[in-house]
Each structure stands twice: as structure tokens, then as C-alpha cells.
Write a structure and sequence with these properties.
The chain is of the alpha/beta class and about 190 residues long. The protein contains six helices and seven strands. Helix 3 crosses helix 4.
Length: about 190
């Protein structure tokens, strides 16, 4: 079985990190953003949330491009069983990072794959432990701009790596996609 998928894959996500991961793995990617509604019931668990949103994105693109293999994903950070979204502004980012400081949180990524009239939905969870951060470290990090548009207010593939003491699980999942598992499952569907 070949490692590389030779077909062009639609990535139903505007995340540059997901695109980068897939391209690093040798995938030929075309980004098509779904623009779907991302509201889910507040009662949803983090796993339900990411799976539902990934599936919604993939199905929206499949309606437009039914013959193309599609990967859609969504990620959230969770601590104390609650979802921490993308901070609205720098103040929210500082508060979020303060909450994560010195603690372990979970990064959930939901994935939906559609190919050959088949659909698979799954999620993966990676535990991330932060160092205890000072207010100055948090302020400096937020001022660098990496918190913008990031679940949990940080990006591990950039300077945010300096916040992380340890991880348990799949590193690419933290970046935005459990890329090896995603491509292996998609290859089975083609």
C-alpha cells in the first residue's frame, strides 16, 4: 500500500495549519471553505461539537463536489469539561491563557471524510500541559499576535510551543489534524 494519495483532495477548512500538515504528508490539496453555520447546542460535549461541525462542513462541500474526496475538520480546546473557543480579542486571549497556565487541557479535533459515496466521522483527543505562565509571559505572547483565530488562544507550531510543558497523544492533532490517521482512513475509502 502506497503512503501517498494520488488524487486531489478537497480540504473543507480555511486553516493554514491543516493545509500545511496535509501538504507536508504529500497530499495534493484544494481548499474550499464551506461557510456553514458553526452553532451547536450548548449541551454538546467537545467530541460531539467537533464531529458535528466537521460533518456539517464536509457535507456542504460534498453537495457541491460529489465526486471529490473531502476532508473536513474542526478543533476545540477543553478544560474542566468546558469548551474554550477562539478568543474574541487580546483581553480574552490573556484570560484564556491564564486559565490554561500550569494545567492540562484537551485538544479535540473532529474529522469527517467523504469519498466514493462513503462517510466517516471520528475525533481524536490530545492532552496538553502548559508551564505555569507569568502575566508578563502571557501578555508578551498575546502581543505577538499568535492568539488570533486560534482555539485556546495559542498555536503550538509557532512561538506557542514555548508555553507547552508536555503533550500526551498525537502532536499534529494539536496543530489542527491527526494527519496520518486521516490520510490512512481516506486511502481505505478510495
Amino acid at each position: 500500500m502506497a503512503l501517498k494519495i494520488e488524487k486531489k483532495i478537497i480540504l473543507a477548512s480555511q486553516s493554514p495549519s491543516r493545509k500545511m500538515l496535509l501538504e507536508q504528508a504529500g497530499a495534493d490539496i484544494e481548499v474550499v471553505v464551506s461557510g456553514v453555520d458553526e452553532d451547536v447546542p450548548e449541551s454538546f460535549t467537545p467530541a460531539q461539537t467537533v464531529e458535528t461541525l466537521a460533518q456539517r462542513k464536509a457535507q456542504a462541500i460534498a453537495a457541491l463536489r460529489p465526486d471529490s474526496p473531502i476532508i473536513a475538520a474542526d478543533s476545540v480546546v477543553s478544560i474542566d469539561g468546558m469548551i474554550i473557543g477562539k478568543p474574541a480579542d487580546d483581553q480574552a486571549a490573556r484570560a484564556t491563557l491564564g486559565r490554561l497556565s500550569g494545567r492540562t487541557h484537551q485538544l479535540f479535533t473532529g474529522v469527517c471524510l467523504i469519498a466514493n459515496k462513503q462517510e466517516r466521522v471520528f475525533h481524536r483527543t490530545t492532552a496538553v500541559t502548559f508551564y505555569a505562565l507569568t502575566k508578563e509571559e502571557i501578555a508578551e505572547y498575546v502581543a505577538m499576535g499568535e492568539s488570533t483565530g486560534r482555539a485556546g488562544g495559542y498555536g503550538i507550531e509557532g512561538i506557542g510551543v514555548m508555553l507547552v510543558k508536555e503533550i500526551a497523544g498525537d502532536y499534529p492533532n494539536i496543530v489542527g489534524l491527526p494527519v496520518a490517521e486521516t490520510l490512512r482512513q481516506l486511502r481505505e475509502m478510495l
